[in-house]
Amino acid sequence: MSFVLRARPEICSGCRACQLACSEAHGEGFNPSRSRLVVAKDDVGGVDQPIVCRFCDPAPCVNACPAGALLKTAGGWLSLRDGDCVACRACVAVCPFDALKMDPSGSRPLACDGCGGHPACVGVCVTGALEIES
To answer: Cα angle vertex 128, ends 124, 132, to 5°?
Structure first.
């Protein structure tokens, strides 16, 4: 893998534009519950923490998929073959960073595919809290 999707909570404004851009880029409309990332708010600590896939290598989520529906692409992103997914949630259960979650319908995991190599979340992050490092 030649990249890292980096989240920098110290400069995240908590605007959640990344979540909206992600859901829109995947044809889900502006629906943050269908985003492949989450911005967790800690109002007590005053911190907004973007929770993003870290594209582990090896990837526990990919290895846990009994149907072989979750794959890593040659570029290092995740790819889900919807038709093969049995919605068992094994991939979600093993993610060490809580970055993988199920679609609200429960029918499939929401896995970051990097928007074809140009993540929509990174493109809309005005503070630079999300970035791709090579």
So the answer is: 85
